[in-house]
Structure formats: C-alpha cells, structure tokens
Design the sequence.
C-alpha cells in the first residue's frame, strides 16, 4: 500500500535520505526506527508531498500523495504534534481539520473521546497542552476521517507507558481491519511494543528490515548454567563467542540451538536458554546504527564478540 | 480478533476539497485566534471611534462635514490594520507551523493561497461595510445638527474605496508570502508604506528626472483616483505600472515561495 522506491533526498552535499526502498502492507503496523537525524521525518514528508524528493518515488496505493483528491479523508497523517496554533483550542484544531475534509462535526467529539481528551481539556488552548496531550490531539486529527492509511511521525513521543499501550491497541485495531500503518520512532522499546514490521534506518540508509520476530531472532541467545565457567569453556571449544551478561549467564550472537548442542555435548547443565532478550534487541539497534551514528553511541565490541547480526534482510 | 479485511484501495475519483470550503476554513482560521479576533474587532471598533471623535469635533466647532469626510478618516486606521491581517493570514501558518497540517490536507498550495486571497477580499468588504455604516450614522447626526446632510459618494466611488482597502490587505498578504515571518513582514510593510514614500518625496524634490518618474512608482498616490475620481488614461497607466511593480511582481515571487518552500 505504501511504496517507497529508491527514494533519495539531498540537502546541499548532505544526503539525508539515501536510496531507500521499502513497502508497508495492509494489515500490518510498520515501525520506522532510527536515531536522531537518520532521515525518518524527511522520508515521511516526501511521502506526503511536503518535501520534493531528489530522486525516486514515494506512493500510497500507487499514487503520489498530491495526486489524491482530499487526501486527508483517505490518509491519516501526523507529522508533528507541536505544529499547531497555540492560540486555538484542541476542539477548534479538530473542527478546522474536519471542516476541510468535509466531515460531520460529531466526528470531532468522537475522536476527542477516543484519544481521551475530556470536554474540559478540549476547550483549553493548545499552547497550554502537555506534550502527551498534544500528541493525543494529533492522533485524533489523523483518525478523524477513519482513514485506511496512517502515517505517523513519532506518535508515541511524550506518551506515558499506558498511552503507548493504548496506541498499540488502537493501531493494532486499524491494521486488523485492513489498514496500513507506518509510524516512526527513535526509541526501540516503542517500536518493539507497537510494530509488527520494522525498518531500521541510519544516516539515510536502511540498515535492516524485516518482521519483528526475524529481527528479534537476530539478537542471538541468552544462556545460563549452574557452572558458568564450564559453560564458557564448552562454548569456546565449539567456536561460539560469548560475553558475560549476568553473574552466571552469557549472551551470544549464536543460535539457541547451537548453544544447546554445544552445552549438551560438553555435559554442562543449563538453567536457562532462550533467544536474546530486550537488551539483545537494544544491542541490535545500537550495532545496526553505530556505524552510521554521528556520536558512535555503541561501545566498541568486546574482544571475540562477532558482528551483531547476519540476518535481517539487508535492503 | 477478526480476520484481516480485504484492502480497500485509494480512491482517485473522490471530489477534491471544494474551493468554497477552503475559503470557509481560511475565514474561520482568521477569526478563531486571539490576534485575528482583536484585529477584526479593532477594525470595527476604530471605525466607530473615528466616527465619534469626528462628530465631537464637528459639533463642538460647528464645522460642516460630508459622508466622504467620514470615510476618508476611517480609511487611515484601516490602511494600517487590514495589511497586518493580510500578513498574519500567511505568516501564522509558518510561525505557528500550521502549514504542515494545512498543506497535508490540501497539497495544492496554490488553492490554499487563492482561498487566502478570497478571504482577504471578503474581510475588506466587511471592513468597508462597517465603515460605511458608521460613516452614514455619523453623517446623519452631523447633518441633523447643521441642517445639511451631504451624501457625496456614489456607488462607483464606494467601490473604489473598497478596492483601496482590498489592495491594502493584498499588499499585506504579498509581504507575508515574500518573507514568511510575521515580525519581518509587518516591519517591512510599514517601512514600505510609511517611510519609503517620504524618501521618494525628498528624492523627487532634489532630482529632476526622479520627480517625473515618481508618479509611476508611487502606488499609494496612484490609488487616489479610486476614491477621488479624476481618471485619465495616464492615471490608469500609473496605477497599472506601480501596481505591477509593488503588488503583482512581488505577489508572484511570494506565491512561488509559498508553493515551493519545504514545509517542516
Ligand atoms: N532543509 C535542510 N537542510 C539541510 N539539512 C537538512 C534539512 N532538512 C533535514 N536535514 C538533515 O537531514 C537529516 C535527516 O533529518 P530528519 O529530520 O529526517 O531526521 P529524523 O530521522 O526525523 O530525526 P529525529 O529522530 O531527530 O526526528 C538530518 O541530518 C538533518 O540535519
Ligand atoms: Mg524526525
């Protein structure tokens, strides 16, 4: 439904978006993950015809956004929740959008209700809103026309954990009805909670994309044994590099099956063996973007710690 | 939950946002902020205030006045406030960053700009009607006191008066579109409207050829026949030339800027 093909954007001599290609299918929530300045917002602005691409194409349902008549009525867009007139009330902001799209005014109340803004809060000026309230108002605005496609830039920014879970339910519901959802974030845990498909972008390039499960599997294995020293030796013999993760546990980029086999062959009793956990995925994100990161956030890999990910469908 | 529903494609056959609706939305956006409410309110209030002050002076000094005198007095504050309204209708989209939403809901920015122009023409009409009512009211009272009520403005002149106010608001819109910043556009507009003419006058007094040139580049003076009459072919040409220099060309440049600038 959303198709981005060899899309690039150059500002002077800086390539903000560098030849990216991806597709978001109906029925899925796609997370667009990348560190600050990676090119997420630029991509979403090109998708909504606000920024002209240097080359490549970005289409929705096969059409350029600007070719779609009354696009707001078919595509819900939230690019920046703080881009609202501070002097307008929340209700007025939604009323203007509804009027432009030609929607029934009762949708305004329905959406205020849906995003949890009380009638009293809706009468307040947006300038007095908290970040989370602005975000909810922006989400309400994007949902006004009950669109089939949602494009949201950092929608979870400023939401509390309950808000993030609420949004996950909401977007899940949209996707289950056949909707296409694309949302960006620079926070892994938000994407992890909300999305099924993940596209990771760093320095304008896609560094990994695939389903969340695939990318999670790429995070390797966590293993714990009664005698950790013996386990370390056994794995080392099997050619599996490990890093200590807890007092008696290790993480490794090898498959759980290989780790289990090596431990069994050496007769080491395991206490725990599972795919890499959240920290593993965090590692993945940092590793994937480290090479592209201006601040080189990720620490230098420990000796013997191999490349983070082999799979993940390099684009 | 439920099975995944079949995808419904994007429909290209839906009607686009009708222009009248865009105008309605822009009109609403002008009136629903504090600045907009104050400016619109001030335009009405100051017209009434001008009428009251004039009446006071006229009655106290036993001077005779006409409908036209009232209108001329009211056009001074309007000439200040209407351009500011024009500026803000464009620049607030940038300073408050609402352009992001406006141009997402209507990606054809030219249509939005055209709607803003239409709203400017409507607001100028509102201002002229308020001024005309206040002026008529003042004229009736002044006339009753002096036994002679002078209605010396015909429909064509009233139309000319409207055209002057409309040009004022369009100049504001143009400066707004050129600079895309409220304070910059307001300052530059007032410099253009009140400082430059003085400099031109001084220059004309010293430089002979500039004195001949001045009527062709002085947009404000070129507009005076709109209300005072006395049209000649040359006066029309001067209005056209000065209007092209100060309104049409800058508007085209400003419109291109609005159409092409990246919205963030
Ligand atoms: N008009 C511009 N001129 C020059 N560089 C620009 C311009 N707009 C964006 N950039 C650069 O493009 C890169 C991508 O910016 P973008 O806003 O898309 O990042 P992002 O992924 O949305 O980051 P964040 O998570 O901070 O929102 C940045 O390096 C930014 O400095
Ligand atoms: Mg961004």
Sequence:
């Amino acid at each position: 439904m959303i198709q981005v093909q060899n899309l690039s954007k150059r500002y002077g001599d800086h390539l903000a978006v560098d030849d990216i290609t991806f597709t978001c299918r109906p029925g899925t929530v796609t997370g667009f993950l990348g560190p600050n300045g990676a090119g997420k917002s630029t991509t979403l602005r090109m998708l909504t015809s606000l920024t002209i691409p240097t080359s490549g194409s970005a289409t929705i349902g096969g059409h350029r956004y600007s070719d779609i008549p009354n696009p707001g009525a078919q595509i819900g867009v939230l690019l920046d929740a703080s881009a609202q007139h501070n002097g307008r009330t929340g209700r007025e902001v939604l009323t203007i959008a509804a009027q432009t799209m030609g929607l029934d005014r009762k949708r305004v109340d329905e959406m205020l209700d849906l995003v949890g803004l009380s009638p009293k809060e809706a009468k307040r000026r947006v300038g007095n809103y908290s970040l989370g309230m602005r975000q909810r108002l922006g989400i309400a605005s994007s949902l006004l026309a009950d669109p089939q496609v949602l494009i949201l830039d950092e929608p979870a920014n400023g939401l509390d954990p309950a808000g993030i879970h609420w949004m996950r339910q909401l977007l899940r519901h949209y996707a289950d009805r056949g909707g296409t959802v694309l949302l960006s974030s620079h926070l892994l845990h938000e994407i992890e909670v909300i999305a099924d498909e993940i596209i990771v972008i760093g320095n304008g390039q896609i560094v990994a994309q695939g389903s969340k499960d695939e990318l999670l599997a790429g995070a390797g294995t966590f293993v714990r044994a009664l005698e950790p020293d013996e386990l370390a030796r056994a794995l080392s013999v099997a050619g599996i590099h490990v890093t200590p993760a807890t007092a008696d546990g290790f993480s490794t980029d090898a498959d759980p099956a290989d780790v289990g086999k090596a431990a069994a062959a050496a007769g080491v009793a395991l206490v725990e063996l599972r795919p890499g956990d959240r920290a593993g995925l965090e590692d993945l994100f940092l590793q994937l973007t480290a090479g592209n990161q201006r601040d080189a956030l990720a620490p230098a890999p420990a000796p013997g710690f191999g490349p983070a990910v082999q799979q993940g469908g390099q684009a | 939950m439920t099975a995944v529903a079949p995808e419904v494609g994007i429909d290209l056959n839906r009607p686009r946002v009708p222009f009248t609706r865009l105008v309605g939305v822009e009109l609403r956006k002008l009136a629903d902020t504090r600045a907009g409410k104050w400016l619109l309110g001030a335009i009405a209030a100051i017209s009434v205030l001008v009428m009251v002050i004039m009446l006071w002076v006229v009655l106290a000094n036993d001077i005779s006045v006409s409908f036209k005198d009232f209108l001329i007095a009211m056009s001074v504050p309007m000439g200040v406030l209407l351009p500011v309204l024009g500026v803000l209708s464009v620049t607030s989209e940038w300073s408050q960053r609402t352009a992001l939403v406006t141009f997402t809901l209507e990606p054809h920015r030219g249509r939005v700009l055209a709607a803003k122009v239409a709203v400017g023409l409507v607001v100028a009409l509102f201002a002229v009607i308020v001024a005309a009512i206040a002026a008529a009211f003042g004229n009736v009272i002044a006339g009753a006191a002096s036994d002679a009520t002078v209605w010396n403005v015909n429909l064509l002149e009233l139309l000319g008066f409207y055209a002057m106010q409309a040009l004022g608001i369009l100049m504001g819109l143009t400066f707004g579109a050129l600079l895309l910043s409220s304070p910059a556009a307001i300052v530059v507009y007032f410099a253009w409207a009140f400082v430059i003419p003085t400099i031109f006058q001084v220059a004309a007094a010293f430089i002979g050829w500039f004195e001949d040139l001045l009527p062709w580049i002085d947009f404000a003076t070129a507009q005076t026949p709109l209300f005072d009459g006395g049209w000649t072919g040359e006066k029309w040409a001067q209005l056209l030339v000065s209007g092209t220099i100060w309104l049409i060309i800058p508007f085209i440049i400003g419109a291109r800027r609005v159409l092409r600038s990246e919205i963030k």
Notes: The two ends of chain B are 38 Å apart (CA to CA).
